[in-house]
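Repro:
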Amino acid sequence: MPENKRRVNHKESEILVPTDDNSVLAPVDGEYLPLTQVNDKTFSQKLVGDGFAIEPVTGDVFAPVSGKVISVFPTKHAITLESENGVQILLHMGIDTVDLGGKGFTVLVKDGQDIAAGDPLAKMDLQTIKDAGKQTTVLVLFPDYQKGFNVKNTATEVSHGNLMIELNK
């Protein structure tokens, strides 16, 4: 394995993949969606930033990178992270789920907390979210990152911890 790579092996998520500071992993199990296919113009037109989405099949949400929790939104539907190399990542859980005021979400981290790729971040009650008429799509967005990225995994079905993209340096 190259020197700049390390293996993330987190006991809760059983991740074991080569990763480095520019790797972004799938935060959930489910169906990969390019951002342009997300059923919301704000996200599909990349108005919040570029990234990717996954339609989850379970409600467990894991850290896509190692770094730090910058903020947990009061409505629990989104978490801002900063990767080890300083890239800000918005992990957005569901579409229009801000309207739920936190209902259907259990956040397992707090502002300022250090995280490793694969750490549990949150739990989504997918049925509660769907019953409220909201979509459960999980988005990984890069609001301020201008260098772009390379998609490494376009498989339809992905598991949390799968390498999804490599950020350009």
